[in-house]
Amino acid sequence: MPAPKRPSKAQQHFMQKAPGIMRKLMRDFPKLQVDDAAATLGNLGHECAGFTKLQEIAPTMKGSRGGYDWPMWTGPRRRARLRPMAISLLYIAGDKLDDAETGLAALTRQAA
Q: Taking the CA of residue 57 as centre, how many other CA atoms within 13 Å lie in the half-sphere pointing to its CB?
């Protein structure tokens, strides 16, 4: 039997980030069950390559800038997500884009 395949960097990153984000999601949405939060994070993780990409790699619509953030928002949602980032200097310094609280806050605003 072949040795188990080692998880990719994106999978490892997802496995590290997802449990904490799930807890925060369930904190912000108390009616969510574990399965609901896991499904949500699984979908988000797929969209953003395990929380490693914030910009869609190959937009399907010609001339489009593509989706942005965990759910790969486009159009008005993309602009709404980028607007506060343009104002805030927090996002100029690299890895802060990976901040779970910031991503979760944007998701919470959209779901409300």
A: 6
Question: Is 79 within the bounds of a domain?
Answer: yes
**What tens-digit pLDDT sequence spans the chain (112 residues)?**
777 789 888 899 899 989 998 998 899 889 989 999 999 999 989 988 888 888 888 888 888 888 888 888 888 888 887 776 665 544 444 444 456 666 777 777 766 6
Looking at residue 98, its amino acid is D
19 phi, psi to nearest 5 deg: -60, -45
Query: Which tokens is 50 given?
Result: 């395990």
Rounded CA gap, 57 and 27, in Å? 31
- Take residue 8 and report the two structure tokens written for it: 């990719």
Structural domain containing residue 72 = 9-111
Instruction: Kindly report whether the global pTM for this prediction surpasses the value 0.90.
Output: no
Residue 3 lies in a domain: no
Instruction: Round to whole Å and give the CA distance between 78 and 4.
Output: 39
Tally the domains of the chain. 1
- Tokens 């949602």 -> residue: 77
